[in-house]
Amino acid sequence: MMASTRSLLRTKSLISNLPRFSSNYKCLDVSVNNDNNITTVTLKRPPVNSLNLDLLSEISDVLTDLKKSKSPGMILTSSSDKVFTAGLDIMEMHKPDPERFKQFWYALQDVWMKLYGSPFPTAAAINGHAPAGGCLLAMCCEYRVMVQNFNIGLNETQLGIVAPIWFIKTMLNTISIRDTELALTTGRLFKTDEALAVGLIDEMATDKADALKKANAFF
């Protein structure tokens, strides 16, 4: 009887420490795996999960909750079957309201710092194209699994934009100096197998389910 009581108390303690997520997210689906307590955060802002102020703010909130709850880990993925995230929402930068733009840029840096410096392990199940800001989010995760036949990279140069220094530093910490130099100069997007060859990703997957399975195996 005493052993059963202790077991019940341990179970209740574990449940109480699990993160409690808002059900009011508009741009995310958040779920916790009952087997390993790993949280999966799914980007859900059709059509291409472009990163606007709302989406960035929700990601930031989830990262804060996971840190407070001492989460054992998080997987970042996408609801789209073609795009992980297309990067920054250009509408946030086209004739922006100065105050909103300041909030947007702060939110982007906030997500970068929280995800890149998270105290819990993170993995990205990249189930679609991941250019520009999408590549940044993926690089911020410690382990990256990418589905075949998609592209990833910092392609800002192709759009006539210079990548922010913290985008560049993150890539330098992920792949070699020379590969980073060439990638940023040309705005290169790496195919999945090319990304694996240079170390931009850690594993290839056949589909989203396979990517999630391999991402879970990281923890």
Q: Can you summarize this structure?
A:
By secondary structure, the chain is of the alpha/beta class. Helix content is 43%, strand content 16%.
Shape label = globular
What is the CATH homology-level superfamily? 2-enoyl-CoA Hydratase, Chain A, domain 1
Give the CATH architecture.
Alpha-Beta Complex
Mean pLDDT over all positions? 92
Keywords:
8 helices, 43% helix, three-stranded mixed beta sheet, delta(3)-delta(2)-enoyl-CoA isomerase activity, mitochondrion, six-stranded mixed beta sheet, 219 residues, alpha/beta, 9 strands
Structure write-up:
This is Enoyl-CoA delta isomerase 1, mitochondrial. It catalyses: (2E)-tetradecenoyl-CoA = (3Z)-tetradecenoyl-CoA; (3Z)-decenoyl-CoA = (2E)-decenoyl-CoA; (3Z)-octenoyl-CoA = (2E)-octenoyl-CoA; (3Z)-dodecenoyl-CoA = (2E)-dodecenoyl-CoA. It is found in: Mitochondrion matrix. The chain has eight helices and nine strands. The chain is an alpha/beta fold and 219 residues long. The longest helix has 19 residues, at 98-116. The model is unreliable at 2-16 (pLDDT under 50). It has one domain (2-150, 195-217): Alpha-Beta Complex (2-enoyl-CoA Hydratase, Chain A, domain 1), CATH 3.90.226.10. 43% of the residues lie in helices and 16% in strands. The chain has helices at 2-17, 53-68, 98-116, 133-140, 165-172, 177-186, 192-198, 208-217; strands at residues 28-32, 39-43, 74-78, 122-126, 130-131, 143-147, 151-153, 190-191, 203-205. Strands 1-2-3-4-6-9 form a six-stranded mixed β-sheet, with helices on both faces. Strands 5-7-8 form a three-stranded mixed β-sheet.
